[in-house]
Design goal:
single chain, 281 residues, alpha+beta, six-stranded antiparallel β-barrel, four-stranded mixed sheet, 14 strands, 14% helix, 27% strand, elongated
Length: 281
C-alpha cells in the first residue's frame, strides 16, 4: 500500500483529483481499490526554501515523498514515479522536470497496514530459501470476503503485470479449458499461520489433521493452488470462473491444466472432506 505525501505552497487540487491519482497508482500496481493513500500538505509562507517556488505567476511544482514496501521491484517503483510525475504535471500544469519525488521503502517488521504487521523477508535467508518470488499479476473480482464456501460461480480476472509481460506470455493459453493457478494468501497474517494439527475450519466434529493434511489458507508459506475454468484471454487479462481467491490476491504462476497430470489411480479421501467441500463450489 503506497503512501504518498505531496508538499506545495499552493492549495490542494481537491479530493477528486487526489482520488483519481490514488486510483491510477492502484491500477498500475494491481492493488485493490483503496490501497493507496494520498496527502496534500500546503506549506505556510516562511516555512520552506526552494528557488523554483519564487518565480512569479508560475504554479509551483510539488515535492513528493512515497512510502512503499521494499518488495516492490525497481521496475515497479520506476513506473510509479513516472506515473506520479506525469499525472501531477498534467493536473497542476507545471513542468514535469520540476516535480521532485523520493521513495522510502518500508523495512520489514516496521510497517502496520490494515491490522497486519508486514514481516516479509524479516528473517535472514537460509541456504536454499526462496526469497525472490514476485507476483506475475493480481486477481480482480467482486469478492473480497474470506468466507470458505460458494466459489463455483465466482468470476475473476487475473491481470498480468504489464511492466514485465506482454500478451505473448499468454499465447496459446486459450486452447485449454482449465487452469491451475498458484497464488499467495496475502491476507493471512503471519501470526495466524498453523504449523501443527487442528480441526479443519475449527469444527470439533471433524478429526484433527496436520496442516499438510488439509488445504487451509493458514499454512506455513501461505501458498494456494486452485483449478478453475478458463473463460477467455483478452490481452493481459485472463478471465476465469471458480477461482477461490479474493480481490487483490497476488498470483505467483498460471499453468494450463493437463489431464495427464490428474491421478492415474482411484482417489481416496476421508469422509470429513466430503462434508467440508459440500458447498465449496
Amino acid at each position: 500500500m503506497p503512501v504518498i505525501r505531496l508538499f506545495s505552497p499552493d492549495a490542494s487540487p481537491g479530493p477528486t483529483a487526489l482520488e483519481e491519482l490514488a486510483t491510477a497508482v492502484t491500477e498500475l500496481l494491481g492493488l485493490p481499490v483503496g490501497h493507496c493513500w494520498v496527502w496534500w500538505h500546503r506549506l505556510e509562507p516562511g516555512t520552506y526554501h526552494r528557488p523554483e517556488w519564487r518565480a512569479p505567476d508560475t504554479p509551483p511544482a510539488p515535492v513528493g515523498f512515497v512510502v512503499c514496501k521494499e518488495s516492490y521491484s525497481k521496475d515497479q517503483v520506476g513506473a510509479l514515479l513516472r506515473l506520479l510525475q506525469g499525472r501531477l504535471a498534467q493536473l497542476l500544469d507545471v513542468p514535469a522536470d520540476e516535480i521532485f519525488l523520493t521513495v522510502q521503502r518500508a523495512v520489514a517488521g516496521e510497517l502496520l497496514v490494515r491490522d497486519e504487521v508486514w514481516f516479509a523477508h524479516l528473517e535472514e535467508p537460509r541456504p536454499g530459501a526462496v526469497t525472490d518470488l514476485v507476483p506475475v499479476g493480481r486477481v480482480h473480482t467482486d469478492r473480497s470476503d474470506l468466507s470458505d464456501d460458494y466459489w463455483g460461480d465466482v468470476t475473476s480476472v487475473i491481470r498480468l503485470d504489464g511492466e514485465r509481460f506482454t500478451a505473448e506470455a499468454l499465447l496459446g493459453l486459450d486452447t485449454f479449458s482449465h487452469l491451475e493457478v498458484v497464488f499467495h494468501f496475502h491476507r493471512v497474517a503471519p501470526e495466524k499461520v498453523h504449523t501443527g494439527a487442528r480441526h479443519p475450519r475449527g469444527n470439533p466434529e471433524w478429526p484433527r489433521a496436520g496442516i499438510f493434511a488439509q488445504r487451509a489458507k493458514n499454512r506455513p508459506n501461505r501458498v494456494g493452488v486452485s483449478r478453475c475454468k478458463l473463460l477467455k484471454v483478452d490481452g493481459l487479462d485472463v478471465h476465469v470462473r471458480g477461482l477461490d481467491a479474493v480481490d487483490g490476491t497476488p498470483v505467483l504462476d498460471i499453468k494450463p491444466y493437463l489431464t495427464q497430470f490428474g491421478p492415474r489411480e482411484d482417489v481416496v479421501q476421508p469422509a470429513w472432506v466430503d462434508d467440508l467441500m459440500r458447498d465449496y463450489y
